[in-house]
Amino acid sequence: MPAETRTTEIIIPISAGGVVSDGISAKETAAAKDNRIPFLWRFGKWIPLPKSRRFMDDFLHFSKKIPTQPLVRRCNIFRVNTLRQESPVRVGWSAIMMRAYALMARNHPELRRSFMKWPWRHLYENPIQIGRIAVARHFRGEDWVFFERIDQPENLSLQEIQRRIDNAKTAPIRDIFLFQLQWLFCHLPVLIRHAIWRFTLNASGTLRTQATGTFGLTTVAARGAISIHPPSLGNMTMTYSPINEDGDVRITFVYDHRMLDGSVVAGYLAEFEETLNGQICDELEELCETGEREHTLRIAA
Does the predicted TM-score (pTM) go above 0.90? Predict the structure, then answer.
């Protein structure tokens, strides 16, 4: 005779508060039942790509076609760090880095060049430097990365560069033309956006440089992180790490390897450090002296 099969039913009482007597909640019990649903019936949901990510999706799509290479130098800028902390005028690291790069690059016209493919492979050299800085903003429920443009930063003071960065971080989006243009651009269908991207990047060196700049600056140092190899559409993109108490910082130049070689860029990094510890220090010292004179005049008055 076949063996008798016995089935035992276990009943777990549930209290009025929805908690099973052994400590398991009724919700957890319901979730356990849901896990018995066959795999093919477990569907998620499709979420449209947010407008804020459309621009970055386009940016990465075209930047991956550029053979960029990061080069890193560990620099010591202890004196810059000390003077910055002593300065009565607040100057952020992004303003300092942008001005230092512009001062260094003004003697190197090759840092204003872009690699062009059409109508044949050639280099385009822009007459002036154009800096682009990435600015994180929260707008209409989404996290955006906008790109502020600063022309000829080598001719601007540290305070003016800082003022423009602060404006890009705090002013209403509708009051910043480039940000508003980027926001409207992301409403277009992907095929139209890509067509505009291709035309901008390939039709004219002037048009490309106006859109991408001659150099870019992006950093997450304020959040204690390091960007290893940020994407780039232009000739050079710069990023930096957090600065420690000894003044050590890691500076990274991401360059287009079709135009520049590592040994050349290594020389630019060394010159960049010299500019920070030289002319930038002099400007910060002047800010400190100006602040002391103003403070003395206020006391005398």
Answer: no
Q: Please measure the distance between the N-terminal and C-terminal CA atoms of the chain and give it in whole angstroms.
A: 114
Domain containing residue 93: CATH number:
3.30.559.10
Total tally of structural domains belonging to the chain: 1
The answer to the question of residue 11 being in a domain is: no
Q: DSSP readout, the chain? A: -PPPP--------B-TTSBBTTS-BHHHHHHHHHTTS-GGG------PPPHHHHHHHHHHHHHTTS-EEEEEEEEE-HHHHHHHHH-SS---HHHHHHHHHHHHHTT-GGGGEEEE-SSSSEEEE-SS-EEEEEEEEEETTEEEEEEEEEE-GGGS-HHHHHHHHHHHHHS-GGG-HHHHHHHHHTTS-HHHHHHHHHHHHHS-HHHHHHHH-SEEE---GGGT---SS---SSSEEEEEPPP-TT-EEEEEEEEETTT--HHHHHHHHHHHHHHIIIIIHHHHHHHHHHHHHHHHHHHH-
User: Is 218 within the bounds of a domain?
Assistant: yes
Residue 33, pLDDT > 90, answer no
Residue-wise pLDDT for 140-164, tens only, equals 999 999 999 999 999 999 999 999 9
| Residue 134 placed within a domain | yes
d(CA 21, CA 8): 19
DSSP string, 170-215: HS-GGG-HHHHHHHHHTTS-HHHHHHHHHHHHHS-HHHHHHHH-SE
* Host domain of residue 126: 52-300
Quick check: is 23 in a domain? Answer: no
* One-letter amino acid of 139: F
Q: What is the predicted pLDDT for the residue at 45?
A: 87
Which pLDDT tens digit goes with each residue over 177-201?
999 999 999 999 999 999 999 999 9
